[in-house]
Amino acid sequence: MSPIFYFLAMLTLGGAVAAMSLRNPVHCALSLVVTFVGLAGVYLGLGAHFLGLSQVLVYVGAVAILLVFVLLLTRGSGKDEFDERPDRWWPALGVGGGLGGVLIAVVLAQPGLALRTAPPELPTVRALGESLMTDFVLPLQVVGVLLTAALIGAAVLALSDRRRTPQDSGPVTSREEGETRR
Amino acid sequence: MNPIVPHLIVAVLLFAIGMTGALARRNAILTLVGIEIMLNAANLSFVVFWRFGPNPDPQTGLMFALFSIAVAAAEAAVGLALIIVLFRHRRTTSLDAADSMKG
Amino acid sequence: MLGIGLIKGLAETGRNFVGSYLDPDRLVTVEYPEERLPVKENFRQFPFLVFDGEKADIGLRCVACQICEKECPPQCIYIEKSKDKKPDHLGKPQFYPAVFDIDISVCMSCQICVEVCPFDAIKMDQQFELSTADRFRGLLLTRDRLAKPNSHFQAIHPRDAAEIDMRRVDERAKAEAKAKADAEAKAKQATAAAPGATKAVASTPKPAAAPANEGAIS
Amino acid sequence: MAATLDQLFVQLLHGMTAPLPEAIRPWVALAISLGAILAVFGLCFGITTVCERKAIARMQNRLGPNRVGPYGFLQFAADGIKTLTKEDIVPRTADQVVHFLAPLALLVPVVLTFLVLPFGRNMTAMDLEVGLLFFFAAGASTELAVFMAGWSSRNKYSLLGAMRAIAQMLSYELPFILSTIGVVMITGALSTTKIVEAQAAAPGEWLARWHVFTPWGLAAFLLFLIAAFAESNRSPFDLPEGESEIVAGYFIEYSGFKFALFFMAEYLGMFSSSGMAVTLFLGGWTAPFAFLDWVPSWMWFFGKLGVLIALFIWVRGTTPRLRMDQLMDFAWKFMLPLALIILPTAAIWHYAGRGWLGWLVTAPIVVGAYVLLGRSLVGRRRIRQRSYRYAAT
What is the domain count for chain D? Predict the structure, then answer.
């Protein structure tokens, strides 16, 4: 295993720990980006170039931006109130740690994992696209429908109080307008 | 050591961290962050099994991860829209505030 | 249609770009330290003190009446009256400013001092290159630095200067005529009282400042 | 002779890395390429700032900078020295770490985008199979740096500027990416090198097969260019730094060298977008006519890059700034549908062929879509006498 992998793994895990434990939600979101970038690096190291770059494009370029936008829209950049309820951390740590421990034990106890050490033939992007259009055409369409539905759903949800604002019919006084804006 | 093991351990730790955070944090957005981390951990294990696993089909794992990214993007969009709606009703994003059925 | 306006605009700027190389008259830039535009006559910067004749300490028109000092809104003028008196251009004995300071770092160029001055002694200058390395003494103009000859005033505000000079010549002529008349009246009285002493009395009020006025007319 | 000149830099790089052991050779080559890119485009950045100021001044019938050095061309050095020696002020309430990281997080992805640009024959620093995706992935991560800069300054103007910048970059990212998909469809590759090679003149042809010479390619090129204007926050899309409203946008609270880094990242972003436009649509390093093949390939690339940058400057000197709603309308109601229409048009072109049939079928689609979308964007709005609600009439 190359030192690059260990570096990226530390980056990924460190980012994840920071994202889940920092006080300021915006810092959490930025740490999450570190995790995403680290994972993209791991994917690239594994030879999944297309996937790694898609990861950066989608997660860093879209999901993280969406997160910080929502954080700002909900005035969430202040302090999180989790330190008022420290009692929640112990059960959560117990569950998470227990699950992690069990899974690591499972991984380490599997002798059958060492099946193939020779790397597979890395598929080219062309091959990837061809299989998307042949073998995986149904999932592709379903994902397309899902994304469209999610897009419309998100837009409808976020716009839901539009009908409550009075359409400007005739002149409004500045006071009324100020109130509707708020 | 077989390269599959450290990769899987990273995926497992990532999943555990995400789960802990998602359970412990009260801010809905940060819970969503935890869920994203868990999804990414699952993705990583898919890619690792694609790369080192015994499956003869060369592309299934990669494809699964790709679709998973697309679904995660949709999930984030809808989840965050829901959080905005929650904020409009309750003026907070704390999940503790969203405990009654009446809007 | 969408895009036509953009192409028109691009053509216009392109024409300007090429034209500015072919036709130097298009360029409006004045490269300041080398090139200067002539200053407009009513441009004003900071006040200065006008003096007549050649010597500043003799011909200063200011009589230290301190009206400007009182009127100055930011109070940047400081005047100390002299102990003795000097005759002015009309021959009347007047005070003169022993100290006259203007702090131009405070002055706001409002020209009120010029408006209120009854002696046309303080006027606005057009000197604008006043930057200095010493921000305290360099910007505190003392009497010697403020005093500028009437010829300078004539050069920068020819119209005002001509009007003022005319008025001053008139005033002086009137004063002289009056002095003459007084003298004559006195002489008559004197002749009436004591004939024979006329010639000796008539020449006494003749002003000593007469040579100082030559500059005003030139 | 022509061939040696063409491969001059490639030979130089080979000569420098040849004595090294096999294992680290590609890494060293990458590092040297990165250094060369930084040096060349850093110099380009300096010269472009001066040229831009002079050109815009001429468009406004002024002289522009002409004091430092011959004809003012050393102005950038003076500016650089000035920014380097200026005091670096960080607001006391700012988020110190994020405030420090933001300029770096902006500059690093922008510099990385240069790695996949083919500057000449065999002159791609990192010839990835997914080069185009790499370009877009690196470009997308600059938005987060903008957010970091705006948020960490604890200044409402910088935050508003960052929100505007991100909204704008996200909106224009879609046509930016979609307009390139047509090229990918026709070429069948995401590798920038292959895209360029596919645009070279075939043996026996006198005209190169640049994608801009096709109806869909021309439309996609214009869309890509407009989106590149918006992505690099250049006029007329420079709302994020609208001086009249939000002072300077997301980098108000930056001074000294950090400000210079932001400035540099903006220009480097412009260079890389222009370079990608050259690569995708203007044939990269290929000559436009077959008989001009003897000119070194990198000269073609940089010549085309220079032409595009001149266009950037020209447009900046011409256009006024858009309003925010106009900006969004333009992205979502005009550019995105047009980019979506261009995709099937490219497919039709692929099957109809390069001859007159392809032109006959695709040109009307592109022109018709342009006219209709343009009408729907501007035509319906009647221009009336403006009524003022608050101002005294």
Answer: 1
**Chain C nearest C-alpha distance from D308 (Å):** 14
Give the list of residues 6+ apart from residue D233 with CB closer than 8 angstroms, or none: D165, D168, D240, D241, D266
Does the beta-carbon distance from B75 to A67 stay under 8 Å? no
In chain C, which residues have their Cβ closer than 8 Å to the Cβ of D377? 2
Question: Pick from A61, A69, A124: which is nearest to D141 by CB?
Answer: A61
The distance of D65 to chain C (nearest Cα, Å) reads 11
- What does the alpha-carbon distance between residue B92 and residue C211 come to, in Å, rounded to a whole number? 91
Contact exists between C and D (3 or more beta carbon pairs < 8 Å): yes
- C31 contacts in D (CB within 8 Å)? 63
| C-beta atoms of A125 and D129 within 8 A | yes
Q: Let me know if residue D35 belongs to a domain.
A: no
| D377 and chain C in contact, CB less than 8 A | yes
Over chain D, what is the mean pLDDT?
A: 84
Residue C75's CATH number: 3.30.70.3270
Question: Hey, what are D257's tokens?
Answer: 């060298």
What digits encode the pLDDT tens for the residues C3-50? Answer: 788 888 899 898 888 888 888 888 888 888 888 888 888 888 889 988
Using a CB–CB cutoff of 8 Å, tell me whether C15 touches chain D: no
Q: What CA–CA distance (Å, rounded) separates D344 from D348?
A: 6
Question: Which residue segments constitute the domains of chain A, with CATH numbers given?
Answer: 1-78+124-162 (1.20.120.1200)
Q: Which of C7, C8, C28, C29 to mutate to test the interface with D (most CBs of D within 10 A)?
A: C29
Sign, CA dihedral D291-D292-D295-D296, equals: negative
Chain A residues closer than 8 Å to D188 by CB = 126
Q: Where are the beta strands (DSSP E) in C28-137?
A: 47-51, 77-81, 86-87, 93-94, 97-103, 122-124
Cross-chain Cβ contact B52/A58 below 8 Å: no
Q: Which chain D residues have a beta carbon less than 8 Å from that of A27?
A: 98
Structural domain contains residue C99: yes
Sorted by sequence, the CB contacts under 8 Å of residue C41 that are 6+ apart come out as C156, C157, C158, C159
Q: Where are the alpha helices (DSSP H) in chain A?
A: 3-21, 25-45, 49-55, 64-73, 89-109, 125-133, 137-158, 174-181
Residue B81 domain boundaries: 4-97
Is B102 a domain residue? no
Q: What distance in Å separates the CA atoms of residue C189 and residue D38, rounded to the nearest whole number?
A: 104
Domain that includes residue D270, residue range: 94-376
Q: How many domains does chain C have?
A: 1
How far is the alpha carbon of B90 from chain A, nearest alpha carbon, in Å? 11
From CA B31, how far away is CA B93, in angstroms rounded? 10
Read off the pLDDT of residues D355-386 as tens digits, 9 standing for 90 and up.
788 888 888 888 888 888 888 877 666 666 77
**What pLDDT, in 10s, does the model give residues B64-97?**
888 999 888 888 888 888 888 877 777 777 777 7
Structural domain count of chain B: 1
Residue B89 domain flag: yes
ipTM score here? 0.75
The predicted structure's pLDDT at residue D1: 61
pLDDT digits (tens, 9 = 90+) for D120-141: 887 888 888 888 889 999 888 8
CATH number, position B39: 1.10.287.3510
- Contact assignment for B84 to A74 by CB distance below 8 Å: yes
Q: How confident is the model at residue A46 (pLDDT cuts 50, 70, 90)?
A: confident
